[in-house]
């Protein structure tokens, strides 16, 4: 087993070296062709009892022509057509002057193969037919043998096979290159798709974390402030505020656990299995804001509508983020109205607030100006589902957020679910 493996390894190393040094390979090929031509020139095809070897000696002119033709093959990769022209011209000279001619045409056969393997098919047809016609015609017209002799037919066959073999090699090389390029493109596409999916997943998890943290931390902050303000004078109210802080903290931890669980590997027994929040628990969400001192009114006409998980979660998060912005930026006297309406194939979610009067305070719509990501996250959620989002200040103060979501989630939205 060791010897064949070693021989195969040496052969592979030799092939790699020759590919790295093409000029050396062409020089070796030229020497081999020259040796073959010189050796064959000592054979006489018209002996008394058939072809004989050693009965004739090539002339000096023939040797010089063979050296020139073989030397031209060294440059066959860089200038294939020029090398074919030189070898064909030298072969024609030998066919006209030699009797019998030395096999200089062997170099033209190699040059024709090179042209066919390195050009396109139309060029191969034109150059191949011209070379066959010139060499075979010269042999038939100027040779001493009859035009139908086997030497002339052999020259015609060898030039034709050289062109066909070169064209076949070129076609196979193009096929292999196309397969390799397709495989590389597919690999790049897979890598880009993997990177895109990772980026989308990171963005989705970042949105969920922002929504959970922003909402619950805002409520905790408000209730903690209330408890600190009334701790001395109204301890019962302070105790109630701290109870709301505890509930908000517990809810935040549960949602964070559910969100972080998405990062666990599949099959992890510790990964949480609680369903994602949706409009089914909208009343509980609004109660948390009411407990934090934000009056919220709700109007719904979507009862009985089953929404895809992605749309249900997006509607819940949009309401949560919009009300969080109202509580943080709308001022102490802010009020909010939430409506969820089924309109044809869409669900319209609208959040209105009176907020700060125009020109006073920052207002909930100024979160983007202060570096927040709430409005950006809402817009990304809606766009991913194929819906639309509009957000802007209301005349006379306050803010308005409206999201129009399709009842059937967009394909990208399904992935986000």
Provide an overview of this structure.
By secondary structure, this protein is an alpha+beta fold. The chain has helices at residues 2-20, 22-41, 60-72, 80-97, 105-118, 121-142, 150-230, 235-260, 282-291, 309-329, 374-384, 411-416; strands at residues 43-44, 52-53, 296-300, 336-343, 346-353, 388-393, 399-406. It has a 5-stranded mixed sheet with strand order 3-4-5-7-6, covered by helices on one side. Strands 1-2 form a two-stranded antiparallel sheet. Helix 10 (309-329) runs antiparallel to helix 11 (374-384). The longest helix has 81 residues, at 150-230. The model is unreliable at 265-274, 358-372 and 411-417 (pLDDT under 50).
Compact summary:
With 417 residues, this protein is of the alpha+beta class.
**Main sheet makeup:** 5 strands, mixed
Q: Please state the structural category.
A: alpha+beta
CA radius of gyration is: 43 Å
Morphology: rod-shaped
Please mark out the parts with pLDDT under 50 across 5 or more consecutive residues, or reply none: 265-274, 358-372, 411-417
Largest sheet, order of strands side by side? 3-4-5-7-6
- Estimate the strand proportion: 5-15%
Number of helices: 12
The CA-CA distance between the termini, in Å, is 56 Å
Fraction of helical residues = 55-70%
Strand segment tally: 7
Sequence of secondary-structure elements: HHEEHHHHHHHEHEEHEEH
Mean pLDDT metric = 77
């Amino acid at each position: 087993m060791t010897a064949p493996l070693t021989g195969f390894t040496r052969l592979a190393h030799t092939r790699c070296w020759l590919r790295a040094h093409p000029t050396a390979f062409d020089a070796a090929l030229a020497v081999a062709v020259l040796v073959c031509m010189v050796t064959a020139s000592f054979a006489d095809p018209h002996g008394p009892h058939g072809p004989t070897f050693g009965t004739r000696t090539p002339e000096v002119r023939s040797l010089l022509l063979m050296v020139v033709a073989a030397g031209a093959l060294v440059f066959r990769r860089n200038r294939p057509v020029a090398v074919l022209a030189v070898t064909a011209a030298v072969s024609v000279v030998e066919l006209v002057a030699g009797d019998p001619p030395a096999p200089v045409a062997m170099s033209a056969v190699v040059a024709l193969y090179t042209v066919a393997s390195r050009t396109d098919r139309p060029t191969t047809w034109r150059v191949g037919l011209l070379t066959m016609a010139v060499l075979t015609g010269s042999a038939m017209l100027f040779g001493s043998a009859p035009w139908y002799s086997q030497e002339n037919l052999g020259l015609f066959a060898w030039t034709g096979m050289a062109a066909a073999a070169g064209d076949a090699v070129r076609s196979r090389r193009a096929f292999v290159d196309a397969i390799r390029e397709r495989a590389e493109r597919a690999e790049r596409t897979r890598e880009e798709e993997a990177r895109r999916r990772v980026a989308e997943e990171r963005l989705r998890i970042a949105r969920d974390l922002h929504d959970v943290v922003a909402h619950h931390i805002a409520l905790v902050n408000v209730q903690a402030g209330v408890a600190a303000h009334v701790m001395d004078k109204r301890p019962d109210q302070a105790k109630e505020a701290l109870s709301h802080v505890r509930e908000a903290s517990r809810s935040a931890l549960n949602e964070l656990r559910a969100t972080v669980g998405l990062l666990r590997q599949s099959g992890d027994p510790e990964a949480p299995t609680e369903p994602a929040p949706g409009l089914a628990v909208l009343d509980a969400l609004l109660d948390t804001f009411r407990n934090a001192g934000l009056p919220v009114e709700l109007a719904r006409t979507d009862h009985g509508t089953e929404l895809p998980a992605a749309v249900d979660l997006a509607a819940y998060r949009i309401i949560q983020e919009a009300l969080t912005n109202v509580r943080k930026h709308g001022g102490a006297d802010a009020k909010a109205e939430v409506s969820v309406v089924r309109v044809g194939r869409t669900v319209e979610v609208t959040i209105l607030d009176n907020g700060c009067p125009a020109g006073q305070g920052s207002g909930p719509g100024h979160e983007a100006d202060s570096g927040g990501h709430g409005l950006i996250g809402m817009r990304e959620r809606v766009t991913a589902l194929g819906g639309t989002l509009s957000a802007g200040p209301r005349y006379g103060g306050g803010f308005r957020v409206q999201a129009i979501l399709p009842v059937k989630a967009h394909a990208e939205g399904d992935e986000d679910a």
